[in-house]
Amino acid sequence: MPTQTKIAVVIILESPGYWLMLKRNHAPNQGLYSPVGGKIENGESPRAAAIREVQEEVGLQLEDVHY
Fold first, then answer.
1. Within 13 Å of residue 49, how many CA atoms lie on the same side as its CB?
2. Whole-number Å distance between alpha carbons of 65 and 22
3. DSSP states of 1-51
4. Cα–Cα distance, 66 to 42 (Å, whole number)
5. 3-class SS at 54?
6. Which class for 65: exposed (0-12), middle (13-18), buried (19 or more C-beta within 10 A)?
7. Continuous segment of H or E residues that includes residue 53
8. If we measure between CA atoms, which residue out of 18, 2, 11 comes closest to residue 58?
9. Using an 8 Å Cβ cutoff, are 54 and 35 in contact?
10. How far apart are CA 49 and CA 13, in angstroms?
11. What values do phi and psi take at 58, rounded to 5?
């Protein structure tokens, strides 16, 4: 049976001397720190997914992302 490929984004937000990390609230990674990220939705660009994930996970509204 074929499996569906899942594509995700990871966003690294850096300010001089600082990196934004999340402390996960839910299993299986509860209590661990990680960068912002998540799955790309069907038809969504990586750039749009990155902007959406940052908004959903930390409440920041990005104007654009660079990669």
1. 17
2. 19
3. -------EEEE--EETTEE--EE--STTSTT-EE-EEEEPPTT--HHHHHH
4. 21
5. helix
6. middle
7. helix 46-58
8. 11
9. no
10. 15
11. -130, -5
Terminal-to-terminal C-alpha distance of the chain:
35
* Tokens describing residue 11: 């966003």
Distances in whole angstroms, Cα of residue 17 to Cα of each of 9, 12, 25, 39: 23, 13, 25, 28
User: How many angstroms separate the CA atoms of 56 and 35, rounded?
Assistant: 13
Q: Which two tokens stand for residue 59?
A: 């409440």
pLDDT (tens digit per residue) in 5-56: 789 999 998 889 999 999 999 899 999 999 999 999 999 999 999 999 999 9
**pLDDT confidence of residue 1:** 61
Tokens representing 33 are: 């720190």
